[in-house]
Amino acid sequence: MAWERKVGKAMHFTINGKNYDADPDIRTSLLDLLREHLNLTGSKKGCDHGQCGACTVLVNGRRINSCLTLAVMHQDDEITTIEGIGTPDNLAPLQAAFVKHDGFQCGYCTPGQICSATGMLNEAKQGWPSHVSERLEGDVELTDDEIRERMSGNLCRCSAYPNIVDAIREVAEEPA
Amino acid sequence: MSDTYTLTMDDPIETSLLDTSAQGLIGKGLDRVDGPKKVSGQATYSAEYSFENGCYGFLVRAPFAVGRITKIDTQAAKALPGVIDVVTDFDRFIRNSAQGAVKSAPVQGVRDVAYFGEPVAIVVAEGYEQARDAASLVRIEHEAGSGNFDFAEAIADADIPPDGAAPATHDQGDLDKAMGDADATVDEVWTTPSQNSAAMEPHASVALWNDDGLTLYGSYQMPSFDRPSLADALGLETEQVRIITPYIGGGFGSKLGIAPESVAAAIASKQIGRPVKTVMTRQQVFDATVRRSNTRQRVRLAAGKDGKLTGIGHETHCSNLPDEVFFEPAGIATHFLYGGEHRRITHAIARLNRVLSGSMRAPGEAAGMLALECAMDELAERLGIDPVELRKINDCKRDPEKDIPYSSRSFTECLDEGAKRFGWDKRNRTPGKMREGEWLIGHGMSGSARGNQLQPSEARVVLRPDGSAIVETDMTDIGTGTYTILSQIAGELLGLPIDRVDVRLGDNRFPPGSGSGGSFGAGSSGSSVYLACEDIRRKLATAMDCEPSDLTLKDGEAIAANRRVSLSDIMSGEIEATGRIEPGDQGDEVRQAGHGAHFCAVRVNAVTGEVRIDRWTAVFAAGRILNEKTATSQCLGGVVFGIGAALTEELVHDPRNGKVVNRDLAEYHVPVHADVPHVDIRFLPERDTHANPLHAKGIGELGIAGAGAAVANAIANATGARVRDYPLTLDKLLDSLPPV
User: Fold this and answer.
1) ipTM of the complex model
2) Dihedrals φ, ψ of B14, to 5°?
3) The 2Fe-2S ferredoxin-type domain covers which part of the protein (chain A) (predicted)?
4) Rounded mean pLDDT, B155-180
5) Among partner residues A51, A89, A153, which is closest to B664 by beta-carbon distance?
6) Has B378 been annotated as catalytic?
């Protein structure tokens, strides 16, 4: 490994491809580690109970609510936050589609929506069924109902929902 | 410094510069200028400011509803590692959050507890987890007092408040007689529950002090009001407080006034001499900020055979804490939406020991039209008249109470256009008779209206010779699109591409803006920017030796009398101007409101009573639309709030102590992705010369007005039965479903 474990820092994480060392309180959630200890404030805290999805990040490629998991459970994990998806000058296709379709208003749930959609598109690609899928096996066709169902863990009180679906559909339909 | 160019809206502005300018930015559905930052996590919200030596505050709340605190035992809390102090101030801590547009301190003093969960102290610790755990160890002893928790009982002693957003009472003619003489009547009672704005960002304040006073990074909608309010609460001069709030994670009314965490963080920070970050938990937001009041509304309608209303009554009760004057103005749209000579519209407050009630998106219309627009539907049914037709029959040319004209009103046009787009002629005409498999199909509609307001607002604009401009005002963008529309207005009037305009908001160092509330933000702050730009245009015209009306500005060039020069050629330095708009006689001489119509199709499961929304069309007219994309989103958000109000949203209060039982987002059900279909939203072209120089009216709340009633009317159409107790959850529908 190219990095050196800092003296006194018990834990190591790979976040957005960069190495981070930290010594969090054992009660610190992954979300608070990001926001309060590592200055990665793109992930948002809306409820701290896994009810709103604003804190969604990707851990080892899968979307999770980072408020529902303790930082100490993620030694050496690879974590992707909104900061790792794209920057204002170099937006990822999903981010650009959210801007184009006005898939947000206040912007507070947005990083979670985009991280969640990133994970969700991958799940669909791998053929994971959802509650509204007609079959449990085979390819997933991402209909609007499928997108809505799979994104329902991410609340948006400004209620940009239909625009978010438009943005996700546009990216899902792009040739890989 | 520049002089302030002020316009008071005493007279209509017949010609808007937005119609004669050349940049072509107005009205288009341009992307949000703050979009790239928001989608990449680079927009910074209040809790995301960190400072050297900063620490964390966590609020301690009363675990009882009413009483007087005799002792706060902090020993166990202070013994925990990392705990710095437990701070309280029985005199200055906020008991009730501030209402909107108030410059004085809200109710202070927390020795006396008036509602369950009232914040009474704050733990400060090095780490967030340490503060949180310590807060759970603070013991509060008290002498119990007696409170009122039963709405039905408290109605008997309800009081009539002073006039608020609407008159508390209005009596005209003889409604009882009109009801007796009518060919058809409706006389029913609707109830709506307490609701919570549930903005995704919880209330948060980061407080730090220096020699000049307090700086507070706080999530607040109206910094020009919140600043003096916070100063007053702390015993400071207004100038000693600076609120900074460039991005706000939604407000919907809940962040109009300062909330308890602001004063607690400020006092703790002062006491320990370090920056203190205090973020409310979601549960604290529910328990201890503000709710939309529950209501009881009796609506009476009297009409002739022709459908023409002769009488209209809307007698309402809401609830609030003792001594609070805010009432839910549920009859606010009833004053002007429909004609009828005999009228009685009243508001009374039942005093309850529940968390403060105040403004939530469209205070008045949102709750009131859930009753009024269903009553209109019931009247249509009794008369055998199409509900769209009934509303058109009762459209007015003049305000039926004040006998003044409307500033602009395209209500009938919205009804017609909506009906056409939706395919209203193909609706289910016999309630309870359209079925597909196990689903009952229903169609419903409602009218929409929201009063338009103007508030004093000020902005400074600086034009630079290089063809760029800076706009500064302490106005906020709570998701409404302020950054974008102010960029458009300045770019349009100064002839600059939108990316050459830098809009800076949410800082008391800038001129005082209207703040975001009551849908007045775009019209008010937009007008202040317009006026500043108008002043700059005059100066440029002088430099071009032409009349301002002969000056064209486009793409950084000035054009007049066959001369085309770049701005740098005629500007020796920066030109700065401050614009200020003031409300005037136009607020009284005409009735100003936006109007619209909702149409929706629902399915009701014949076995379970589950309701799904399949389709929605809404058409609005609200003056000039500044940005079609952000305006559409505003109305979309309103419609979805209406879906929540109709179907799922209800704060449940414990009847023993008023406590909010369902105080999180798993139990308080806001709509999710799966609840919302594609929503078709359209705007009709309209200009309102009485509203402001932009000719635009507010749209942030128009979308919710009437939306829930359209759902309720569609459910009645599907099932053939009326439920008048919101939200229309499936348990309330079971009795009206066909036998399995």
Assistant:
1) 0.98
2) -70, -35
3) 9-85
4) 97
5) A51
6) no
